[in-house]
Write a structure and sequence with these properties.
about 270 residues; alpha/beta; Rossmann fold; eight-stranded mixed beta sheet; 8 strands; about 45% helix; globular; binds adenosine-5'-diphosphate; binds magnesium ion
């Protein structure tokens, strides 16, 4: 049994990459086999995992996606895919790096037969090797992100209380609903995680309550909240996991609590 999570929110800077990395590292610490797939041409996850120049990597996600597209979806014709050189290792996890070329995949997908299924094919190919597959999505609801939602079992939505936008959330929810309706009937929203939360701030608590009241029927809001800490950015810049850089700190503690809350949910 394995699970694929898409970490998605079309707003940038809300903590998608941080959630993907720290959830992954946390699950890996619990002995689970984890792979992160960097589905963002900005490649922030790839950089934080120790590859500061993603565009110089020989094989990244867009190369594999292009090969699957060019083979007409016939995976037995995909040499790069079979070689698995795109699977890298860091912080106790495997990961598939991204690069800027992922932005040109978007245009290729438009003219591709079965364009929503390219990433799903790749995930199907590797998924038996893992307990958890985490897709770190880009800040856009384009075809590449639709590919991620189509490949996923569950969606995790990180939210920054300071910049919460009901309109933005509605758009995300309606995209998820149409992927579920038209492509991936098993897709479910796992929940929303409040990131960069400052419990001293009234309006952060208010935002959380508004989200719970207005959207409680659609998804749960996790009890665990991730506090603000400069340690997050520091450890990412050093290419270190927060569990390595500051294992007893509040961030490591809160992501570990979040991973437990998530797993307890099944
Ligand atoms: N809990 C936190 N406290 C402080 N800074 C954070 C926290 N979580 C994320 N950040 C920082 O905020 C920025 C955006 O986070 P990131 O995870 O890259 O968002 P996204 O992937 O949604 O664009 C990054 O510089 C990251 O280091
Ligand atoms: Mg990101």
């Amino acid at each position: 049994m394995n699970l694929t999570y898409a970490v998605s929110n079309q707003k940038g800077g809300v903590g998608k990459t941080t959630l993907s990395l720290n959830l992954g590292a946390s699950l890996a610490q619990m002995g689970r086999r984890v792979i992160i797939v960097d589905v963002d041409p900005q490649a922030n996850a790839t950089m934080a995992l120790g590859y500061p120049q993603p565009d110089e990597l020989p094989v990244t996600l867009p190369h594999i996606m292009a090969e699957i597209i060019n083979s007409g979806g016939r995976l037995d014709k995909c040499e790069l895919l079979e070689k698995r050189e795109y699977i890298l290792h860091a912080q106790g996890m495997d990961f598939i790096p991204s690069s800027i070329e992922l932005s040109s995949i978007e245009n290729i997908l438009i003219n591709t037969m079965s364009r929503e299924n390219v990433l799903k094919k790749l995930i199907g190919y590797i998924r038996d090797d893992y307990d958890y597959i985490i897709l770190d999505c880009m800040p856009s609801l384009n075809f590449v992100t639709i590919n991620a939602l189509n490949a996923a079992d569950r969606v995790l939505i990180p939210m920054q209380p300071q910049f919460f936008s009901a309109k933005g959330l509605e758009l995300l929810l309606s995209t998820i609903a149409s992927v579920k309706e038209n492509l991936n009937p098993g897709l479910a929203i796992e929940g929303a995680l409040m990131t960069m939360f400052d419990s001293r701030l009234n309006f952060h608590r208010e935002t959380m309550n508004i989200v719970k009241t207005a959207y409680g029927d659609y998804f749960r809001v996790f009890d665990t909240k991730i506090p603000v800490s400069v340690r997050v950015t520091e450890s990412q810049a050093q290419g270190r996991s927060i569990f390595d850089a500051d294992p007893k700190g509040r961030i490591a503690e809160s992501y570990a609590a979040f991973a437990k809350e998530l797993i307890a949910n099944g």
